[in-house]
């Protein structure tokens, strides 16, 4: 079995000009499951959780808490097992 790295990006959460990473629920090296809430993103209108798309392990967090990001920016890297 090989491993594949998947970049986790800021999803399109509507008409948001400013998105802030307000907190991470995981650390690099931590195992995560599909649909786990990895971090919370806040716009001027609402808060949105970033959910994990696959079961795997967080390799790196590329946007620390307090970062201002935009749709399409990379937030973290997830490593998953490939069949």
Describe this entry's structure for a reader.
This protein has 83 residues and is an all-beta fold. It has one domain: RNA polymerase II/Efflux pump adaptor protein, barrel-sandwich hybrid domain (OB fold (Dihydrolipoamide Acetyltransferase, E2P)), CATH 2.40.50.100. 0% of the residues lie in helices and 53% in strands. It contains no helices and eight strands. The model has no long low-confidence stretch (mean pLDDT 95).
Key traits:
mainly beta, four-stranded antiparallel beta sheet, 83 residues, 8 strands, elongated, OB fold (Dihydrolipoamide Acetyltransferase, E2P)
Q: How would you briefly describe this protein structure?
A:
This protein has 83 residues and is mainly beta. It has strands at residues 2-9, 19-24, 31-32, 37-42, 47-51, 56-61, 68-69, 74-82.
């Amino acid at each position: 079995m090989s491993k594949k790295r998947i970049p986790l990006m800021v999803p399109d959460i509507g008409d948001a000009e400013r998105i802030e990473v307000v907190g991470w629920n995981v650390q690099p090296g931590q195992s995560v499951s599909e649909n786990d809430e990895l971090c919370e993103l806040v716009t001027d209108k609402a808060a949105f959780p970033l959910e994990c798309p696959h079961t795997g392990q967080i390799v790196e967090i590329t946007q620390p808490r307090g970062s201002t990001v935009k749709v399409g920016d990379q937030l973290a890297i997830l490593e998953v097992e490939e069949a």
